[in-house]
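Field reference: sequence -> structure
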Amino acid sequence: MKTFTFDTNCIIDIADQRPPAAFVNAIIEAHRDGRAKAAFVAVSASERQRSDYYLPTFEIFQERLRKLEIDDIPYICGLGYYEISYWDHAIFSSEVAILREREIHDILFPNIGFVLADFARAKGIDGLRWDSKHARKWRNAWCDRQMIWAHDNAARDIFVTSDRNFQKLNGKPNFSNIKVCTPEEASILLL
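Structure field:
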């Protein structure tokens, strides 16, 4: 049975009823029918919100999933980071995990520092905090690398996203186990 991991954009597709939502919903229905296994990534709760803030609790994220009627879809966890992760919804890191995370980061974001301090130094900003306006680009990269890390760590089959940046991983030698697809491409794999 194929396993599918949804990027945050899939949740937004459903919430905004964008065209890819039909394909995301097809995968969700296949999950509910026992023809596939779908999952969100808990890190989606750490993404910047449209009103330019970050969720203070994971429960608010869960409530959003309930309102969208997709709270029955399980989630997988990324690595825990102080002041960014929701600790009950993250995995303690190891040296091996961080090395893999860095490998992902270097492919997806070669021009963004892996560590917030490095990013801040490159931008000439002292004392940059993870929740500041200037850290948005770094935090978005962090969320994206956590999405793929969680997918990879859980040994899942298909990462579903409309974000073309993730396509950089397709065909890379150290990432032959990862297949990145758009929602439409992923839904075809259900057949």
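Note: The chain has seven helices and seven strands.
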